[in-house]
Design a protein that fits this description.
Number of helices: 7
Protein name: Class I SAM-dependent methyltransferase
Shape: elongated
Largest sheet: 7 strands, mixed
CATH class of the largest domain: Alpha Beta
GO molecular function, one term: S-adenosylmethionine-dependent methyltransferase activity
Order of helices and strands: HEHEHEEHEHHEEH
Organism: Heyndrickxia ginsengihumi
Oligomer: single chain
Family: Belongs to the methyltransferase superfamily.
InterPro entries: Diverse_substrate_MTase (IPR051052), Methyltransf_11 (IPR013216), SAM-dependent_MTases_sf (IPR029063)
Strand content: 15-25%
């Protein structure tokens, strides 16, 4: 299945950063979905459904795109999985039949009216004790600060706006952020244990994406996680920057040398002109 930018496709031309962002969201919730009946709303090509199916009792995956669902049906075959071609504003499941609804990077793809219809459908299919786990880009970071407009996004959210929107449907909303950042690690070779230490009193928690856990009972779930840079993206980028810096320094030296030569030639030309 081809990666177009609208839906993430594993093992495609998507960047390493995009792949990590998408997979981390699912890996961070695997303990939460354990033994539950799960709905992945706008599941895309099904990689998330496949991951959750190894932990959940049953996973439904719905997507509005027929080709995407056909791909999922032919790619991920498990006894506790069902893929359905359907819209998030008209979910083909019974009332109060799902323990957890998961929807990553979906809600920004539909308009404001449809967003409310989507949340109403979520609250309809969720059990009274059920929870919603939902992510969306932080408009301030994703769009405003980067001066970027994703052509597939219809309605993005700022932080307070997103929290207020979700609070209209759920009593409790716990908000997490997701971003890529440089980390300095001390770790044991035998036991991979990490403790997060504060680096600055002025550290401002914010990120490129929001992930919210919503319910009508107090949430006790923690999805905080770190993915270590096994692909050495930072080191590779740093090496590229150093190489570019060296090239720029050599260029500047050459330009300076040429300028001096030009000045000397101009002086000589002026002297010859005066003699004439």
């Amino acid at each position: 299945m081809e990666f177009t930018g609208e839906r993430f496709v594993p093992n495609s031309t998507a960047s390493i950063e995009t792949e990590i962002e998408h997979l981390q969201r699912y890996y961070s919730i695997l303990d939460i979905v354990r033994n539950g009946v799960i709905l992945d709303a706008a599941c895309g090509e099904g990689y998330g459904v496949n991951l959750m199916a190894d932990h959940a009792k049953f996973v439904f995956g719905i997507d509005i795109d027929t080709e995407t669902i056909e791909h999922a049906l032919s790619t991920y075959e498990k006894n506790n999985v069902e893929f359905l071609n359907a819209s998030v504003t008209d979910i083909p499941l019974k009332d109060h039949s799902v323990d957890i609804v998961v929807s990553f990077e979906t809600i920004e793809h539909i308009g404001e009216h449809e967003q409310h219809l989507f949340l109403k459908e979520i609250t309809r299919v969720l059990k009274k004790s059920g929870i919603l786990i939902i992510s969306t880009p932080n408009k301030l970071v994703y769009s405003d600060q980067s001066h970027y407009q994703n052509p597939f996004h219809v309605k993005e959210f700022y932080q307070e706006e997103f929290e207020n929107f979700l609070s209209g449907y759920f009593k409790y909303v716990d908000l997490f952020y997701q971003k890529a950042q440089i980390n300095y690690v001390i770790n044991c070779f035998d036991n991979q244990l990490l403790e997060i230490l504060p680096s600055s009193e002025t550290y401002n928690p914010s990120g490129k994406y929001f992930i919210a856990i919503c319910g009508n009972k107090p949430n006790k779930q923690n999805i905080s996680s770190i993915i270590l840079d096994e692909n050495h993206q930072y080191e590779d980028l740093l090496a590229q920057l150093i190489q570019i810096q060296h090239i720029a320094e050599k260029r500047d030296q050459k330009i300076k040398k040429l300028q001096l030569e030009l000045e000397e030639k101009n002086k000589l030309l002026n002297q010859l002109t005066k003699k004439e």
